[in-house]
Design brief:
The chain has 347 residues and is of the alpha+beta class. Helices cover 33% and strands 10% of the residues. The protein has helices at residues 3-8, 28-31, 60-82, 135-138, 141-151, 184-198, 209-215, 246-251, 256-265, 300-326, and strands at residues 117-119, 122-128, 154-158, 176-181, 231-235, 268-272, 292-296. The protein starts with a helix and ends in a 21-residue tail after the last helix.
Amino acid sequence: MDDTERRSAKRSRFDQTEPEPRKASRFDRRSRSPPAKRPESGRDRSPNANDPATEPKKSPVDAAAAAAAAAARINAQLQAKKGIQHVDVPPIKTATPEIKTEDGSPDPANTINGEMYIADGDYIKDIEVNDLRNRYLLTKGSTQKMERKLTLKDVTTRGSYYPDKSMATAANPPLYLHVTSTSKTGLEQAVAKIEELMKQELPALVDERRFRRRDQEQVERDEYGRRKWPEEKIPIGLESVPGFNLRAQVVGHGGAYVKHIQQETQCRVQIKGRGSGYLEAATNRESDEDMYLHVAGPDPKMVEKAKELCEDLIANVKDQYEEFKSRPPRGYGDRGGYGDRGGGYGD
């Protein structure tokens, strides 16, 4: 080997001018990183990337129109949830062509005067009934059904009743009747029938007898505020004597005589005065007057009848009283004294 070959021969890895190619190893698979993605090489299944530079810009007008459409859609959804509301809007003119006469003037049949108007080919008139006294009669279903049979026209109730009409709004107008007809003559007939019902007088809604009672004279009342019944006082006119129980003879055994008069006349009968045992509510003691019968009741005729029965009772007691006084007093020693079975009180 000459000197030139000896110099060019490889003696060590430090003598290499170029890096030695790396040998493949089985550990390279685990440590190998995924290849970097190149922007120009996309996957076949992926959609084409949108280049923002090539996307057309939306004009401000299109954005405003889209926002308005979205707002209208949201508003429609809200109105659908709230339900159908009748809005008081001006009548919509029909799109029917204007009919002209030969001289060029408009047809008078299409001209409606007053509050009558045309909408969708129908003649319509709205009649307000919010403040009418007989609005309940006009808005009843039976009344409107009768109007349909008589005039063959459609009558519906719209709006809401307001005690104060200033509370009404455009969305909720005051109570009114919506009358619809296919002809002007038919609408006028229906309106005339409704106006006739509006002038109809209603009966009294409140019983006038309730107010009549206030005009009556004030009834007399006692010290406790109770209504004072008609009353009568029948004096007995007898003095108590020993051996003759005046009170027991008047009222009867167990009050039988007084109870009989009360059942016959439905009046209250009481014995009052000195020796009666009746205590007055005001003084809690007997009255200083002589003994008498007191009669009271709601019916003056029955009070008068009870007075007559009491007078008959007192007349009978007076007879017994005089008979008792006519008997001579009996002593203890004679045959008619105390213990005699044939004489004494109650013979």
